[in-house]
Design brief:
2 copies of one chain form a homodimer. Chain A has helices at residues 20-32, 47-52, 64-70, 88-104, 116-131, 158-178, 197-201, 225-239, 258-261, 278-290, 301-304, 312-330, 357-362, 381-387; strands at residues 6-12, 38-44, 56-58, 107-114, 137-142, 185-190, 215-217, 242-247, 294-298, 336-342, 350-356. Chain A is α/β, with parallel strands linked by helices and 419 residues long. In chain A, the strands form 2 sheets. A 7-stranded mixed sheet of chain A has the order 3-2-1-4-5-10-11, with helices on both faces. In chain A, strand 7 (215-217), helix 8 and strand 8 (242-247) form a beta-alpha-beta unit. Chains A and B meet through helix 6, helix 10, strand 9 and helix 11 of A and helix 6, helix 10, strand 9 and helix 11 of B.
């Protein structure tokens, strides 16, 4: 179909990353550069929540230097949310409300940067718009540190969290090497609730056999306590220390999250189980069953926004998918998400493609067996070939006169409500 | 006294840092460059433990390129330990054993890189050597991320942990900004058992009033729950979110560590209290008393060895104190520790001085009142003036073809035992 003339709205959703703002900058700068198509470029405060609340702001009113800086800034600076819309049958009023706001502001392009849930929302919104004959072009922009979106070679955000965590494990591994006579084991927990891509990435730090991480625990490989204890003991025998990289979503053979299986110490004061308790459970197993001291590291949210040591490859691709989304929209593409496509051949090269939003919404990509070693606790050369190029290069960083990074600050002056 | 001719032994002790190896490289390279004084330069595997076990290795046998790389490598790559020697009355046999090993290898210079305890050990060893008329020059090299050594303006290791943690808080603070509608509070725990220097340093990230950290909890300021709850509530009113930077050694007004005061969830499976549980207690207070969701971040050992974003100032000073220690020894100085001396005047400039080991051994420097704001939850401009220069510059980093840092690997081939 021919592209309508109207405003573009860009929104971010879900967990922040080190480079999701680069995707936003790619969308914003590309759209602002094409006033023939886009009569304005708005941001939504806190994702779809901002649309529901009609909390929108004019990105053309922001200082262009800050938009350029957005490209080098972590977290979701447009504002994000974890507000999940259900199916059209249940949440139809919400979708209608969104279209009401869009219509009031003549929003004809919706660029949604997020993961599965966001693609689901964008898909359903597009379907309803068609149904009520409101001309709207929805294009998805992939984002997730979890790297679990299907139909894309990898996800913007993953390369940076991989680079930071591999480096943190390399460094903390040297700490354990120095102090093994006292702190013999370290359990280093990383994010990834269902998929072990981030935990697997720490394996990139292991250049030599005795380097950390000695054991990687992936959500894809259920933790059998007896085997794990054997693995730790063998490691202690071989290296006098044991460094375990542990995905937060590691499960028992019964499918229970390890963070929920460890007893009282993995619960908070309300008795709520906190995911992210996996490392504590692993530590308890080591101390109780192996009988040596173990420490835990858990960077938490700091890992996913560690822009200070982000991958230049990731940052560039994140910007590229934002640009490609606008180009697709201008070309009349609708209801699709931009994907990253790895070219075949020796040298790493990556271009963009497109896939139906619905397909992405319902897909999930776990770490395949070919990337996991025979013992289930390490990564293969095939994984190294896959993930290695994604952590290449140090993303450009602006440092202030105070010696710390300088990141964007948007004004986000809300436009007047029309509904 | 005139300097004897003999071997130098260099050892590291206690918790690793991002730059303690730079100090070691300063000692090693300076000593190797002066064969007229130093007939050899040995390292001790795992600090004083390595001496007791006569596990020594010849640093002249290492590849000079790896020694140069040591200068840019984190952790304590000579090997460290947490083996504390008691007084001469109790541990005399250990001190005698050390001197026996020194005598067997003609070690006449002992360079000990560490904190209070290490300076205590070096002082006592020097005293016993004098007593038994064994000519030995002991020089201390300061090291601690905790920045709590007296008689030195600051400690090598502090500037880097300060830079990394301020940056991590800045970045995680933007994460909380993006997701405040869901994850309203974040409690970010940093190291520092007795002194709040590291927690204070996160205050450098707060360029604007609404920037994280909104509340800093220091071990120097007992946490009064009612006041803390008020502070959080005011913060939520003003900024819709609250980011707390929490020192691991924060205490209750009764002097109990917060990590031990929080109930069952701060204990491990043996019922042992784990220090480092402070953030969990603070999270529980926020969730229970304020009624909003809080997350915790705790980088653990990864923060103190985060060489990938270390301070260039810190790295240079760490090397400088190593060089100065050798120079002092050659000059016949004995029983002293090298200090960092800040020159007065506008521009930051730092030179070295010397202080008696005994004085350092018994001193401890907490964050003074003038560096803490009136509310007890922030830092003053005086603190910014003090700590700001220490985080300046990005330390040189070697990146491998795999996109990750390259750090030194020593061979550490043990020399033949002679006792």
């Amino acid at each position: 179909m021919a592209s309508p003339k109207g405003k573009a709205l860009v929104a971010q959703s879900g967990g922040p990353t080190a480079v999701i703002n680069a995707s936003a900058a790619g969308v914003i700068q590309s759209a602002l550069a094409d006033p023939d198509t886009f009569t304005g470029v708005y941001g939504a405060l806190n994702g779809i929540l901002g649309v529901l609340n009609e909390e929108l702001y004019d990105l053309a009113a922001e200082d262009p230097a800050e938009i350029e800086r957005l490209r080098r800034s972590p977290s979701s600076l447009l504002g994000s949310c974890r507000h999940k819309l259900k199916g059209l049958d249940v949440s139809r009023a919400d979708y209608e409300r969104i279209l009401e706001v869009f219509r009031a502001h003549d929003v004809r392009y919706f660029f949604y940067i997020g993961g599965n849930d966001s693609m689901d929302t964008a898909a359903k919104l597009g379907r309803l718009a068609e149904e009520i004959d409101y001309e709207l072009i929805c294009v998805g922009v992939p984002k997730t540190i979890d790297n679990d979106l299907a139909f894309t070679d990898h996800c913007p955000g993953y390369g940076s969290v991989a680079k930071f965590n591999a480096t943190a494990v390399m460094e903390a591994g040297l700490d354990t090497l120095a102090l093994y006579t006292h702190d013999t084991c370290t359990v280093h927990e990383v994010m990834g609730r269902n998929a072990g891509w981030i935990a697997a990435a720490t394996g990139l730090a292991r250049r030599h056999e005795d380097d950390a991480p000695h054991i990687i625990l992936l959500p894809e490989v259920p933790l059998v306590v007896e085997k794990f204890v054997d693995d730790v003991q063998r490691c202690l025998k071989d290296y006098k220390r044991c460094f375990v990289a542990c995905g937060e979503g590691v499960k028992t053979p019964d499918g229970e999250y390890l963070g929920e299986a460890g007893g009282a110490f993995s619960k908070d004061s309300f008795g709520h189980t906190q995911l992210g308790g996996a490392a504590n459970t692993v530590r308890a197993i080591i101390e109780e069953r192996v009988g040596v001291k173990a420490r835990t590291n858990r960077a938490g949210t700091a890992q996913r926004v560690a822009r200070h040591f982000a991958s230049a490859t990731d940052a560039a691709e994140a910007y590229m998918v934002g640009q490609a989304a606008v180009q697709a929209a201008v070309d009349g593409v609708h209801g699709k998400m931009v994907t990253l496509v790895r070219a075949g051949g020796g040298e790493y090269k990556c271009t963009t493609g497109l896939v139906e939003l619905e397909k992405v919404a319902n897909g999930e990509k776990l770490v395949p067996a070919k990337f996991i070693d025979a013992n289930g606790t390490g990564v293969t050369d095939a994984f190294r070939s896959y993930a290695g190029p994604l952590v290449q290069g140090e993303a450009e960083l602006e440092i202030g006169s105070d010696g710390l990074p300088v990141y964007a600050r948007l004004v986000q002056q809300l436009v007047e409500k029309r509904t």
